[in-house]
Specification:
This protein is an all-alpha fold. The chain has helices spanning 7-10, 13-23, 26-29, 34-42, 58-68, 75-80, 98-104, 109-119, 127-132, 139-156. It has 2 domains: 7-42, no CATH class; 51-156, no CATH class. Helices cover 55% and strands 0% of the residues.
């Protein structure tokens, strides 16, 4: 194993892949063909992303994920990265963050009304539900939520 002084370096490509390779059993490492190697790897425990995160239109899903991770083009997110000098919204609010975008901004009132009407059938909705879904409801209801959020993103015209 390569010696790493920093955790950041230890988690980089070469050390992490070396660790993964060393964790494989000898039979898998010595597979005769690529297809046998892939078959041996497919039997291992692989964490899959929830299929909910892949629902809807890809471009809108990417924007939705960026909102989830606070790395969108909302002024507050850009301000935190020192890309803009002012985190305020065009409506005059001093902070254009995800909460403001989904719940307060008067510029998107009509689109927000549609969002809340479309998601009302799934029960109590809040910002966390818009961003991550609701574990208490079915996958179909969560798909309704995510598609409504993506429609809101599109209709807002903000992105």
């Amino acid at each position: 194993m390569p010696k790493c002084r920093l955790t950041l370096t230890d988690n980089s490509f070469i050390p992490s892949t070396t660790r993964l390779w060393n964790s494989l059993d000898n039979d898998t490492r010595n597979s005769q063909t690529l297809s046998r190697f892939k078959t041996a790897l497919s039997g291992r425990n692989v964490v899959k992303s929830p299929c909910l995160l892949f629902s809807g239109v890809r471009k809108l899903g990417i924007i939705h994920a960026r909102l989830r991770h606070n790395c969108s083009v909302l002024n507050y997110d850009l301000f935190r990265c020192n890309l803009v000098g002012d985190p305020s919204c065009m409506c005059g609010n001093p902070c254009e963050n995800v909460f403001h975008f989904f719940t307060e901004c008067p510029l998107y009132m009509q689109a927000r009304d549609t969002l809340y009407n479309d998601t009302a059938i799934t029960g109590n909705v809040n910002l966390n539900t818009f961003l991550y879904g609701n574990p208490a409801v079915s996958l179909d209801d969560n798909n309704i939520i995510f598609r409504a959020v993506q429609r809101y993103i599109r209709e807002s015209g903000r992105f």
